[in-house]
Amino acid sequence: MKLILTFDYELFGDGTGDVFDQMIEPTKAILDVCEQQDIKTTIFFEVLEYLKIKEEWENGNKMGYNKNPVQAIDNQIQRAAVFGHDIQLHLHPQWVGASWQEDSWKLNLENWRLGDFSYPGYTIEKLLKEGKNAIEKLVQKVVPDYQCTILRAGGYNIMPSREVYEAMKNVGLQADSSVYPGGYEHGSLSRYDYREVPLIKGIWWGAREDLRNEGNTKEIMEIPVFALPQRRIHKLFNIDKIKFLIFEKEQNISSVSREKIQKRSLGQKLEFLLGKEAFTWDFCLFSTHLHKAFFRYIEHNLLQERKIFVIIGHPKSYKSDRSLKALISLALERKFSFITLKEAYENFVR
Questions:
Q1: Long-range contacts from 147-150, C-beta under 8 angstroms, 24+ separation
Q2: Is position 113 within any domain?
Q3: CA-to-CA distance for 1 and 70, rounded, in angstroms?
Q4: 165 with 206: CB under 8 angstroms?
Q5: What is the pLDDT of residues 308-341, one digit of tens each?
Q6: For the chain, how many structural domains are there in total?
Q7: How far apart, in whole angstroms, are the C-alpha atoms of residue 283 and residue 24?
Q8: pTM over 0.70
Q9: Rounded to an integer, what distance in angstroms lies between the CA atom of residue 91 and that of residue 113?
Q10: For the ranges 79-88, 134-143, 147-156, 225-234, which has the lowest average pLDDT?
């Protein structure tokens, strides 16, 4: 069995957060743990956000930073690439047209979803090309033959996928990792429906009309994030997380999570916490108990069906090494090994 550790390298979806606190420091901790075990990860680099920060910094706006955040990002991504980590494209299209006003970023939240992105003077293809080129320009300074070939849509919003599929093909992207089985959102921000995506499929050639389905052409591959239905309380079994979901005291709760709980009564919030939802396998948020539950499900139901499982994380959610170290230990006990998404793609096409 092969496990693929991926993480989304980014600030919060509404533009809040600090590059050093939410990206540089926790990513360093993640990579330190992985490098101790000689594990290569796949880093999904949110490049639109990076380009906006870079533009402001070069125009003399320090954005409250005492140190250069752009140089810190450049150094970290390049060091990761030299070590052998896989650097790939992550896009939150709400950063298109973003501006720094007074003391914070103002984003276009109407463009939250890549699948139905629309902005004057832009196409999805132009967006993907700019992102891919920017990452390649940065990484090729230290790894000359590096190519960016894999996409993850911000917030898993690859749907509707037909235009994204054609744009990916035209710019040279070969695979996507945005879908997760059981996933469903239909709010003002995220909208997708992955409830019919089967658990038994770990990788497939996507259909031109719909990446959720298997197609006849071998152009764009889908490598889904592994997910299982769980009670929300199990993922949030931490008193601080439960408090901010119930009382909304946490300032850095994601926009999608905030949308889910706002305008609910206390009783409705408790009911929400006890309900079930498809959870992506998360190495930053999961308890050891949840990691074990996912391994048990694989061992009891999927060992004969599929060979690879994509795991996700977000440095901005990384509070300690406990969850990641537990995951690695449980995987090694079971003789699972770790590969990158690029390796998974290459192995599949051979």
A1: 147/172, 148/87, 148/88, 148/89, 148/173, 149/88, 149/173, 149/174, 149/175, 149/342, 149/345, 150/42, 150/86, 150/88, 150/89, 150/174, 150/175, 150/176, 150/177, 150/223, 150/341, 150/342, 150/345
A2: yes
A3: 37
A4: yes
A5: 999 999 999 998 999 999 999 999 999 999 999 9
A6: 1
A7: 17
A8: yes
A9: 9
A10: 225-234
The two tokens of residue 301 are 């139901």
| Structure token digits, residue 70 | 């752009």
Q: Tokens for 196?
A: 């019919």
What is the span of the domain harbouring residue 141?
2-228+280-349
The amino acid at 298? I
Cα–Cα distance measured from residue 156 to residue 346, given in angstroms and rounded to the nearest whole number:
23
Question: Is the Cβ–Cβ distance between 239 and 227 less than 8 Å?
Answer: no
On whether residue 266 sits in a domain, the answer given is no
Q: Is pLDDT above 60 for 24? A: yes
Q: Where are the alpha helices (DSSP H) in the chain?
A: 25-36, 47-58, 69-83, 124-139, 162-171, 232-235, 239-247, 255-261, 266-274, 288-301, 322-333, 341-349
Asked whether the beta carbons of 180 and 156 are under 8 A apart, the reply is yes
CA-nearest of 119, 102, 141 to 48 is 119
In a domain, 68, yes or no: yes
One-letter identity of residue 16: T
CA distance linking residue 142 with residue 19, whole number of Å: 22
Half-sphere exposure for 246 (CA within 13 Å, toward CB): 15
> For 27-43, what is the mean pLDDT?
97
**CATH number where 308 lies:** 3.20.20.370
Q: Is residue 115 part of a domain?
A: yes
Structure tokens at 223: 């490598």
d(CA 142, CA 92): 26
**Cα separation, 175 vs 279, whole angstroms:** 22
